[in-house]
Structure formats: structure tokens, C-alpha cells
């Protein structure tokens, strides 16, 4: 449905360090780089991160979060570890989420700007 999403951050260098580390285990890399914007994806940019004057205020009750597809469980685990090591906050350790489905393996992070992120792997039959 979506071609890409864009988020605004106050400190692009901090975001660059965080997203470079957190997205690498999922197979996503920085494909675009400028003084005010960076872009990530596997082959084309799907996530744009821009330095802006007034980023959206983080609100844990808003329901907003972004979910990234992972190639396997180990990638979900590595995403979680790398995100925490790079300034993210744990919002749900890696594991099966039976409320979402018996094969739904995910981890949840809050990035340094307050965006809620998820890495997900479907580990079984549909």
C-alpha cells in the first residue's frame, strides 16, 4: 500500500547512528544521505528520516508505530540488541506474541526521538 514513510527528527546525526545500527540486522541500509535527510531500505528507500524544526511530539498512547519485516528470528533479536545499544529504549523484548498470532515473533523499541518501532518475523505456516 505505501511506497514510503517520512519521519522528522531534531538531531539527524543521532538518528543516523541509531537507524544505521538498528536496521542493519534486518537487511536494510542507508541508501540516501544528505545534510538534512537520510533514507533506508533494502533496494529502494522506504523510510525517510529528516531533520526538522518541529518533529511530531512522541505520544505512547497515539497507537502510531512502524513495523519492519525481518528475515528470521535472529534478525529480530539483533535489531533489538543493536537498537538498545544505539540509544533506543526497550518496549518489548524479542519473542512470540500469541495475541498477534502463534507464529508472530517480534521485538519493540522506542527510538531516541520517541518513535515506536517493531521488527517482525512470521516463523511458521500462515
UniProtKB/TrEMBL annotation:
Residues 1-122 form the VOC domain. It holds the Pfam family Glyoxalase. It comes from the Bacteria. InterPro entries: Glyas_Bleomycin-R_OHBP_Dase (IPR029068), Glyas_Fos-R_dOase_dom (IPR004360), VOC_core (IPR037523). It comes from Rhizobium leguminosarum bv. viciae. PROSITE patterns: VOC (PS51819). This is VOC family protein. PANTHER family: GLYOXALASE FAMILY PROTEIN (AFU_ORTHOLOGUE AFUA_5G14830).
Amino acid at each position: 500500500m505505501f511506497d514510503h514513510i517520512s519521519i522528522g527528527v531534531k538531531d539527524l546525526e543521532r538518528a543516523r547512528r541509531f537507524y544505521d545500527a538498528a536496521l542493519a540486522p534486518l537487511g536494510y541500509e542507508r541508501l540516501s544521505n544528505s545534510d538534512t535527510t537520510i533514507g533506508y531500505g533494502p533496494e529502494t528507500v522506504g523510510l525517510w528520516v529528516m531533520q526538522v524544526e518541529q518533529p511530531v511530539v512522541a505520544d505512547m498512547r497515539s497507537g502510531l508505530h512502524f513495523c519492519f519485516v525481518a528475515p528470521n528470528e535472529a534478525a529480530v533479536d539483533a535489531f533489538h540488541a543493536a537498537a538498545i545499544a544505539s540509544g533506543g529504549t526497550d518496549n518489548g523484548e524479542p519473542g512470540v506474541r500469541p495475541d498477534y498470532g502463534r507464529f508472530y515473533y517480534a521485538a519493540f523499541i522506542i527510538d531516541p526521538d520517541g518513535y515506536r518501532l517493531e521488527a517482525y518475523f512470521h516463523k511458521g505456516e500462515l
